[in-house]
Every structure is written in structure tokens, then in C-alpha cells.
Write a structure and sequence with these properties.
It comes from Solanum commersonii. This is KIB1-4 beta-propeller domain-containing protein. The protein is mostly beta strands. Helices cover 12% and strands 42% of the residues.
Length: 300
């Protein structure tokens, strides 16, 4: 053929790129040459598809690779990701919010393209809440994006972290610092997610809270107003060894409780899930299905 692989029409390369389904194939595609890599940025269909595909990020093996397990493909794929080596990682919208525990440096990292977005540091995160050296940093629990940075620059990042107690803060593109979110709830944040323009979280005592953070086109608010959506008196909040999650599925906001015990080696063993739909209009829970697990199988 005349020219070479690098001379293929950009629109043709974009069409080919958007037919790729496996992460390793996508990476190989971007490594062919500069024009092929540029073609992957012309249309973000692959990014959108991939963030909707359930993936489990496996534990850090202290090397330059991180392994991801696909629930759909039922296979493990190793990705060359030295930026995540020995970093604390919180996934959201196909990106990883990573923190270097030794330096406090924070970034958003795309696990396929390895694109990084620098964030204000952990020290700034602590300072946003007026915390100094007298308060010890514990860990970052969760990071939630309102939208994928691959698709739009109009997004908000909310982090849930522990420094003596449970805390929240947000950052938007263009912000120089983290902004603290004052919390009036009882109990630690156990699950948080973004759903239809608002952030929702549930506490260990059964409180469901909701708040909004305007995008970067709007001046930064001095305070974020939160509303108590619902306070559940369900006995699931009295259970020991229970974990709570807020998950968007099929256009619904689901509240999922995972029940576990640790009969040996102090390892949690899940034995049941209970699922509710959060009615964000009426402010109530609707009980859905219960899933009991037995070994590696599940009974619905």
C-alpha cells in the first residue's frame, strides 16, 4: 500500500478504535504510532463503553503491573501501570484517584491511556478542613467522579477520607485547592455515589444524605448544603460485619448490604446480600432481592 500504516485516514482509524473491546488490544492500538494514538481521542465511545463494564482491580503486587478482572469476560488482564505502583487507588468512571502515601501527591489516572490529571496534595486536603500536624492522616476511603474526564471537563471529584474522623471534600478542574464539605451526619460514611446530578451517601447509622456541587463553570460555593433524604430504622444497621454500598444500575439508585463473618484467619466471608432501591423522590427504601451465597455459587 502507498504510504504506510501511519498514513491511514484518521476517520478510518477512529472507526477501528471504537470497535476494540479488550483493554490490552486498545493499548496495543495506541502504541503503533502517534497518529493511531491521536485517533483514539477523536471519539470516546470506547471510554464510555469500558467504564460501564464491571472490572475488579486486584491487589497491588508491588511491581509495574496491575491486574483487572472482568466480570463479563471472566478473565484477568494485566496492565502496565507503573504510576499506580504502591499507591492507594480509588476507582470511579474508568479513572483511578491515586495517592502516594509517602509524599501525599494525588492524581487522577486513566488505567488504559495512563493519562494523569494532577490534583492538590493530601496536605492541601487536610488544610481545607483546617487540619494541621496535630491530626493524623488515616486513609482515603472512596473517590467519586460526577462524569468521566475522558468525556467532559465539566465534572466534580468528591473524596471521602479519614483523619481522626470521617470527612468529605471536593475538587473541580481549575480549582487550586480542595474544598471541605461540612458534615452534620451521625456515623461514618459507608457508601457514596453520584446519581442524576447529585451526590448521595449513607452512614453507618442508616442516614441517607444528598448534596449538589456545581461544575467548574460556576464560581466555587462557600459551603455545600446537605439534606437528609431518609433515616432508616431497618435492623440491617444493627448488624455486625455488614458493609453498605450505593450503586446505580438500570437507571436506579440501589442500596446494597453485604453481610459477612470471619470464622477463621480473621478473613471476612460473605454469606448474604440484601438489595433495596432508594426512592430519591419519596425519600424511602424499597426492598428488592436477597442473594444468599454458598461457597462460590449464588442462590437468587
Amino acid at each position: 500500500m502507498a504510504g504506510g500504516w501511519a498514513d491511514l485516514p484518521m476517520d478510518l482509524l477512529a472507526i477501528i478504535a471504537n470497535r476494540i473491546e479488550l483493554p490490552k488490544d486498545f493499548i496495543f492500538f495506541t502504541c503503533v504510532c502517534t497518529s493511531w494514538k491521536i485517533a483514539t481521542n477523536l471519539n470516546h465511545k470506547f471510554d464510555i463503553f469500558f467504564t460501564q463494564t464491571p472490572l475488579l482491580m486486584l491487589a497491588d503486587k508491588h511491581d509495574d503491573y496491575r491486574k483487572f478482572y472482568s466480570l463479563i469476560k471472566q478473565k484477568v488482564t494485566p496492565l502496565f501501570l507503573p504510576e499506580a505502583k504502591q499507591r492507594h487507588c480509588c476507582p470511579s468512571e474508568g479513572w483511578l484517584c491515586i495517592m502516594d502515601d509517602s509524599t501525599g501527591e494525588m492524581n487522577l489516572l486513566h488505567h488504559l491511556s495512563r493519562t494523569q490529571i494532577q490534583l492538590p496534595s493530601r496536605d492541601d486536603l487536610m488544610a481545607s478542613n483546617g487540619l494541621g500536624d496535630e491530626v493524623l492522616w488515616d486513609f482515603m476511603e472512596k473517590a467519586i467522579l460526577s462524569a468521566s474526564p475522558s468525556v467532559t471537563s465539566d465534572y466534580v471529584l468528591v473524596v471521602n477520607y479519614h483523619a481522626d474522623i470521617n470527612r468529605l471534600a471536593f475538587w473541580r478542574p481549575g480549582d487550586l485547592n480542595w474544598t471541605n464539605i461540612e458534615m452534620d451526619n451521625l456515623g461514618a460514611v459507608m457508601g457514596i455515589n453520584y446519581y442524576k446530578g447529585k451526590f448521595y451517601y449513607v452512614t453507618a447509622r442508616g442516614e441517607f444524605w444528598v448534596f449538589e456541587v456545581p461544575g467548574p463553570a460556576t464560581p466555587k460555593p462557600n459551603a455545600v448544603e446537605q439534606h437528609l433524604l431518609y433515616w432508616s430504622e431497618h435492623d440491617i444497621f444493627l448488624q455486625h460485619s455488614a458493609q453498605y454500598y450505593l450503586v446505580e444500575l438500570s437507571d436506579k439508585l440501589l442500596f446494597i448490604t453485604r453481610f459477612a463473618h470471619y470464622p477463621e484467619l480473621h478473613r471476612y466471608k460473605t454469606y448474604k446480600f440484601k438489595i433495596f432501591e432508594v426512592d430519591v423522590i419519596k425519600g424511602e427504601l424499597k426492598e428488592e432481592d436477597e442473594i444468599k451465597t454458598l461457597g462460590d455459587s449464588a442462590i437468587f
